[in-house]
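Subject: Re: docking follow-up (zinc ion)

Dear J.,

Thanks for your patience while I sorted out the input files. As discussed at Tuesday's group meeting, I've set up the holo structure prediction with zinc ion included as the bound ligand rather than trying to dock it afterwards. The sequence and the ligand SMILES I used are pasted below, so you can double-check that they match what you have on your end before we go further.
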Amino acid sequence: MTLKILGLGGAKEVGRSSFLLTEDNHSLLLDAGLKLFPKRLNIPPLEPNIPLNERKEFFSSLDSMLVSHAHLDHIGYIPAAYHYGYTGKVYMTKPTADLANYVWEDGLKIQGDRFYNKKDVNLTNRNIVKLDYNNKIKISDKVSATFHDAGHILGSAAIELEWDGQKILYTGDISDQKSLLHTGYHIPTSNDKFSFIISEATNHHTSRHTPREKSSKGLIQAALDTYKRKSKLIIPAFSMGRSQEVLSILMTYLDDLLYSYPIYIAGAINKVNKIYRKFFNSNWINPKIIELVKEQDSSLKTPWDHPGLKEVRGFNTQKRIMKSKKPCIIISTHGMLETGPVHGFLSLGANKKENILAIVGYQASGSIGADILAGVKTIELGYGKHVKKYHIDLEIRKYSFSGHISRENLQKFLTNTQTDQIFTVHGDLNSMTHLRNRLKNNGLIATVLPSMESTST
Ligand SMILES: [Zn+2]
Ligand SMILES: [Zn+2]
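The structure tokens for the complex came back this morning:
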């Protein structure tokens, strides 16, 4: 039996992750994501690289799809597989199924039916096999899979495959960080050797992570400073993952203060909070925060039930909040300030020195968030005809909350796991070359995944 592997996306880039494993009797796709670009670059989203005239044949002959987690770069293209005639199941964890449905519905609003339509989303939902962690499931006569906690976002998984006697590991996006919500990855060490590991390499060119404790303390300090100044703390964040973590940090540390110092959330954050609430148990969430919430206030079930948390809709409400003399915290999408209600808040508060803008996530080069961090003082906010220039006078602070494993620990993990070969994926070229060189020094064979990616992007 010869097992072949091919990257359809994400093999030499971050975005549109999709890896095809084939053998005589079975073909299996790990993830099918999209790649988005900063608005200003004017590049349409990219799908996995399957030529248009081959898609029907490709997807109608595909046997199974497995999904690591609900980020767009891993699941954004899944309903399109059904659009092109895929008839099999798609395997993912229970929380991933709920989060993915939210991402697909959101995709319909943003991209229309560019990649798939509402019917395809419904068909996808009907074909999801929802899994718990650590339960081995049979995919075919010769293939079985176990989803392990990857510690990256709610429901994220590293996928272990057993394929006709061979063992394979796909890390997905993996984190070693102990946060309030997650306890880092849990992949049991095994005496069996993996034939190969497909490993993410996102952070490999960057130096050591800032400890999460330090970033959390910094963020709390920003909240306390804002309170003293009677000003506004604006935190741009993506709706999934980072928003819930930041809310948990603020809720657990500020607690009673929040009765007079509200947190406003805007964008789709509340929708995702509901999904996090549903899975707020020790199967999916750090037991420590479950205890902490109970101890603090027995009437609260989750950090997102705090009465100090309020959802904001509409520009008029934003105006009222920003004009008020009372201090407040605002958490709003989009995480890189590309779009979303954060534009409204910032247009009303960017000119006030006493306000603070706290950047808590990665800012891709070319995004408005990256410009602000680079010190650009005039930015454009708004949409269509309503785009206007605004001067940035508010204070900018940055706190690092990486969702990916540090380079030291990734090297350790890969060196301690027995394997014949490692394929590096999900990283820029610098990052992946760096990882491969380090692993080679430790006697490990690490290579680029054979891929169909065009080199033009
Ligand atoms: Zn991810
Ligand atoms: Zn990713």
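A couple of observations from a first look. The first strand starts at residue 4 and ends at 9. The mean pLDDT is 93.

Let me know if you'd like me to rerun anything.

Best regards,
T.
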